[in-house]
Specification:
This protein has 500 residues and is α+β, with helices and mostly antiparallel strands. Helix content is 35%, strand content 21%. Helix 2 packs parallel to helix 8 and helix 4 crosses helix 14. It binds flavin-adenine dinucleotide.
């Protein structure tokens, strides 16, 4: 029976797993070891909608407490400065799912001119607003279509306090030895001599991947043939008069792309690039030229890919210890949320004694999640025509689409319709859904053979629809600053059960 779990790593991944275990399996003792010398990665600030739902739904962390302590900024999606348009918005609202009325044509067929304002959420993004004002007063109509921008260090501090309250024992120490009993791990010995016995262990040791990677020597599946970037420069500055944008920005750069992430008092930027095409010094120069306010910077190297197995014997890896893809769609917190749900549900449903089929099933689900993100990001690289630098020429020629190959082939022949949806993706599991792929292909103006399906009337109706959304967002939208001022007020009421 499962009685003791030891988690190696005190970053976001380890802390979220500790909270998940204690909330869903309160009879289990959880100890978490974090190195006092190695620290946490300290980057990772944008999320999708899954993360607030996980925090406040699955983990039941009260939003009011979280907002007061962590001060998240609110995010409706990502603005892509990408492809031939000046920009387009990837919202969490599935804008490409709509049809033009009355013809019923999927809207992707008419969005080559008008994609901004495709739905109310993208219209709010364009107008730099986050929610509509409530019809009954000056407060926001809060919807579930939001993700967060959060400072990684502040999140870790909050989660540390939270898991301690849940009864997790946090120990400072460095791993010295993995002690085995046959094929399973029996205990971890720390450098100060302490021995932590465990029935089950979670490897949350970040890129060091001490257990799944180093100890078990699990093969690493590289994603470099699809995702060629391997470094990031990060930096930022204190906000002065800049408005808080309700989205992350992803801007095309000479040898990669740059994010802009919004916090109430700070703006953080980072340049993800490929060391084969630009040196650290040249990347820093380009980054600084485009962001003259940026303060000190640091370089974070990374390796895109995942371990072939995430669950081995009595060890499960979570977060960067299991795999990594760059934050072009801000998906790491999403993956961690799913990993926590998968593991905790498997342990709970199996009464603490998971069978090999359960283990394999969780392993396949987790691996499939990473792979789908790789496939989705590969599409972003393969079709971005914005710049003609050697890096982007290479991407358009060489990037392997992997699982997205058949989706792109279908699109090129048929355009953005949903006839073959369940053939192209697994709708129940897909993070991005088919409309996510269509949004980017249409957003980047990738040609298809059925452009003639749209009539002039369809185009006019669609243009009016987009204009009406933009007008409504401008007239009735509230900014992030206005909305947060209300939501941080202790008298603000959260609807119980609002989050899943
Ligand atoms: C450039 C970049 C940008 C990113 N942007 C985003 C983003 O916008 N959105 C997003 O969701 N994610 C993003 N991420 C991912 C983000 O870093 C992770 O999602 C998240 O912070 C989880 O990290 P972690 O807990 O797995 O690892 P870490 O934070 O590195 O934690 C590892 C822990 O293990 C401990 N440890 C390691 N080895 C030992 C040892 N031998 N003994 C004892 N303790 C040990 C460390 O001390 C630490 O406590 C980004 C990552 C990078 C590199």
């Amino acid at each position: 029976m499962l009685r003791n779990v030891v988690i190696l790593g005190g970053g976001t991944a380890g802390l979220l797993m500790a909270a998940s275990l204690r909330v869903k399996l309160p009879e289990i003792k959880v100890q978490l070891v974090a190195s006092g010398t190695l620290g946490v990665i300290g980057v990772g600030e944008g999320s999708t909608t899954d993360f607030p739902n996980f925090l406040h739904g699955f983990l039941e962390i009260p939003p009011a407490e979280f907002y007061r302590a962590v001060k998240p900024a609110l995010k409706l999606g990502i603005r892509f400065d990408w492809g031939p348009r000046s920009h387009y918005h990837y919202s969490f609202s599935g804008a490409m799912r709509q049809q033009v009325q009355p013809s019923g044509l999927p809207c992707g067929y008419v969005a080559e001119e008008n994609i901004v304002g495709a739905d109310l959420v993208t219209a709010l993004m364009e107008q730099r607003r986050v929610f509509l004002q409530h019809p009954q007063g000056p407060w926001p109509e809060v919807k579930q279509t939001i993700g967060y921008h959060i400072e990684n260090a502040e999140l870790a501090v909050f989660l540390e306090g939270y898991v301690k309250r849940l009864g997790v024992e946090i120990l400072e120490g460095d791993l010295a030895e993995v002690m085995m009993a046959g094929e399973t791990v029996r205990a971890l010995r720390l450098q100060d001599g302490r021995v932590l016995e465990a029935d089950f262990l979670v490897d949350a040791s970040g890129f060091r991947s001490e257990l799944i990677g180093k100890h078990f020597k699990t093969p690493f599946i590289s994603y470099r043939d699809s995702l060629i970037c391997d470094r990031a420069i990060v930096g930022g500055w204190q906000r002065t008069f800049e408005p808080i944008l309700p989205y992350t920005v992803a801007e095309t750069m000479d040898a990669g792309w740059a994010w802009q992430i919004e916090h109430p008092t700070r703006i953080n930027r980072g340049y993800v690039y490929c060391s084969g095409f630009i040196s650290d010094e040249a990347a820093e120069a380009e980054f600084r030229k485009k962001n003259p306010k940026v303060g000190p910077t640091r370089v974070v190297p990374f390796m895109p890919g995942r371990y072939a197995r995430q669950w081995k014997h009595n060890v499960f890896a979570v977060g960067n210890a299991a795999g990594f893809v760059e934050p072009l769609e801000a998906t790491s917190l999403l993956v961690i949320s799913h990993e926590c749900r998968f593991l905790v549900t498997a342990l709970k449903e199996s009464g603490g004694d998971p069978t090999p089929t359960v283990v394999n099933c969780v392993d396949r689900l987790s691996g499939g999640l990473w792979d789908e993100i790789r496939d989705f990001l590969a599409v972003h690289y393969r079709f971005n025509q914005r710049l003609d630098t050697p890096f982007w020429q290479h991407c358009r020629r060489e990037v392997a689409l992997k699982g997205a190959e058949s989706i792109v082939e279908y699109y090129e022949q048929n355009g953005p319709n949903y006839l073959a949806e369940s053939e192209l993706i697994k709708p129940i599991q897909s993070v991005f859904q088919l409309e996510g792929y269509w949004l980017h292909l249409v957003g980047m103006k990738v040609p298809h053979q059925r452009a003639s399906r749209a009539t002039e009337t369809d185009r006019q109706v669609w243009a009016q629809h987009c204009a009406a959304n933009l007008h409504r967002a401008e007239q009735h939208g509230m900014t992030v600053a206005q909305s947060l001022a209300v939501m941080h007020n202790p008298r603000w009421q959260w609807t119980p059960g609002f989050y899943r």
